[in-house]
Amino acid sequence: MAETRLFPDRPINVCVTGAAGQIAYSLLPLIAGGKVFGRHQPVSLRLLEIEAALPSLEGVVMELEDCAFPLLHSVFITSDAREAFRSCDVAVLLGAFPRKQGMERKDLLEKNAGIFKEQGEALNFEAAANVRVIVVGNPANTNAYVLKHFAPNVPEKNITALTRLDQNRAVSLVARKLGVPLSKVSDIYIWGNHSSTQYPDVLHGSVEGKGKLSDLLDKSYLEENFIPTIQKRGAAVIAARKMSSAMSAANAVCDHLHDWLLGSDSIVSMSVASDGSYGIERGTIFSFPLRCSRGGNYEIVKELQLDDFSQRYIKITAEELYAEKAEALALLS
Ligand code: NAX
Asked: Nearest residue CA, atom 35 of ligand 1?
């Protein structure tokens, strides 16, 4: 059966910020090549960069042209956030202020809160009414929270942050540890903040034909090895590559958007505004396990039982997020 298009009579308008950066360099071909929004959905790209990076972005546009993607309808570049977000259906927010040597965490939060306040206001006025937003730039959950605060016209459910990379890392590590194909591993979730307090949860997972992960992996392995490895994986990539994750981040953005907009049979992890589930303060942008259905709808999975082990980890990451969001809003006021 022919795949139906998300927008049957027009291209989907996709804004990508930080478009001259390294994640964008891996992500733009996935978007323009049909991997994210489907093999039949034409795409118009609206690319935002700071003024100083526009010459470099022009080179990226040349490469997009030279890829000759049949689905790529148009590319528009700008350093003006309001122009970039105009009528966009999807906004992928990669651009953020990088942490520099000697910079305090508070300064990083403040710089980024300023960027995401401005971008929230621009989205609020310019984007399509049902725009779907994914924040990737760090601190991603708190940046998404700030954005949501300054974009009251955007439905709260439509503002998300990326934790799919953490889920993919966790699934891959379990498959390697148990020596099983990745496709046999299911139901591994990420709870909380995209930071070193996140909780990669295998206790609801299983391996097809082998049984429950709670029987296959003991808690001392989880506590001493698995959880810290996933929590610190980003730092390990930086130590090895001298640059942060880009290919795997772009792949995860692709998975996140694809499953959100086109639906998925699996439960997936995304950071979304809490509705109070599992005792998490309403509105906090927190990673939960979700069920996504075609058209951009999702529900937080409600029926999971969390044991003391899981609750202990979830409390730590929730408290970090409450402190971050209070700090970011205080810095802005
Ligand atoms: P790069 O430094 O390569 O690119 C970022 C780009 O954003 C730069 O070209 C910069 O000029 C641009 N930019 C900065 N401020 C901007 C603004 N106000 N408006 C528009 N563009 C702006 O970083 P890259 O490796 O692409 O990573 C992007 C962000 O993703 C970083 O904040 C990074 O920490 C974060 N990550 C988040 C991950 C997640 O899972 N949530 C994983 C990967 C990544 O570490």
From this structure: 137
What is the 161 CA–ligand 1 centroid distance (Å)?
13
| DSSP string of 127-159, one letter each residue | S-TT-EEEE-SSSHHHHHHHHHHT-TTS-GGGE
Nearest to residue 56, comparing CAs of 96, 21, 14? 21
Structure-token pair, residue 30: 């996935």
- Tell me, what's the pLDDT at 1? 47
Tokens, residue 43: 């795409």
> Which residue segments constitute the domains of the chain, with CATH numbers given?
2-161 (3.40.50.720), 164-328 (3.90.110.10)
Q: d(Cα 221, Cα 188) in Å, to the nearest integer?
A: 16
> How far is ligand 1, taken at its centre, from the CA of residue 152, in Å?
24
Q: Residue 17's closest CA among 96, 111, 110? A: 96
Q: Cβ distance 110 to 146 under 8 Å?
A: no
List residues with catalytic annotation: 194
Token couple for 85:
């977000």
Which stretches of the chain score pLDDT less than 50?
A: 1
Residues 6+ apart with CB under 8 A from 103: none
pLDDT confidence of residue 2: 54
Token pair recorded at residue 307: 């044991």
List CB contacts of 126: < 8 A, sequence separation 6 or more: 82, 83, 85, 86, 87, 88
Query: In the prediction, which pLDDT does 107 show?
Result: 84
Torsion sign, CA atoms 300, 303, 306, 311: positive
Q: Look at the alpha carbons of 236, 240, 244, 247 in this order and tell me if their dihedral is positive or negative.
A: negative
pLDDT tens for each residue of 66-98: 999 999 999 999 999 999 999 999 999 999 998
